[in-house]
Amino acid sequence: MASIECDLLLFVATSTEFDALKKAAIDLGLPWRKEASPTGEFWNIGTLGGYRVVVVRTEMGAIGPTGSTRQAHFYLAATQAQGIVCLGMAFGISRQHQPVGTVLVSDSLFPYDVRDVVVDPDRAGSWIYRYAPEAPSYAATTYPAKPDLRDRLRRHAATTALSHPVQFGCLLTGSARIRCLAYRNELVRRCVDVAPNIVGGEMEGLGLLSLAERERPYWIVVKGVCDFADEQQIGDAKANRRLACGNAARFVLGALRSLNPPMAEV
User: Fold this and answer.
1) Residue percentage of the chain with pLDDT more than 70
2) Residue 3 has pLDDT above 90, yes or no
3) Is residue 3 helix, strand or coil?
4) CA distance 81 to 72
5) Which of 45, 87, 94, 243 pairs with 20 at a CA distance of 20 to 30 A?
6) Cβ–Cβ contacts within 10 Å for residue 260, how many?
7) How far apart (Å, rounded) are the C-alpha atoms in residues 42 and 65?
């Protein structure tokens, strides 16, 4: 594994995300070479826009021996990569303004579990949570994405005719699998003062926040909207996931193929 070197890692978690990225790469005529070692396996898709790019798998979420936290640290050390793009599917927050397949790009992430849980003064035996803790070391804050990756994706969105909308903003990130409209709305309502411009949420980005100081991010999260974290399901859930993951994969690969300068080292 120590001999593997690349500039950029593409992270996917689910089989749907992996299959969509593979199809997008093959459709673009990119190589898709599986290579393995005693400590893991990866897929080499060649050099795009000056980046040597490798695909790796994680499990869903940040926690566990193959979750995004452990895998991010492991593969960065093994490859000496200078960045990670976390690809796949996310939930949106507006059925009216975010059609299924809309691609969400993280200007920033907000880990919504960083909060104070305190006794509710108005209801005995109940509690409330808040995102303005008094302890500075535990202050709830947003984490900005890697600037050069973000700027490349912005340029691509602004200069390319795409078949789907692209929205840049803050993504909520945490370990909960949310399927409740009331909870999603309350979560957004409570977070918005700390994290303005929330466009959706996901699970794997949380694991990337431990890679470096807040001011030196290695990562960006790019995911397509497949649902809205509520009880409803529009149409075919599997088809929605494939559309969301495919749009995100094609958008990122298209941006990486552009002839902008390679990303700066961190």
Assistant:
1) 92
2) no
3) coil
4) 10
5) 94
6) 15
7) 17
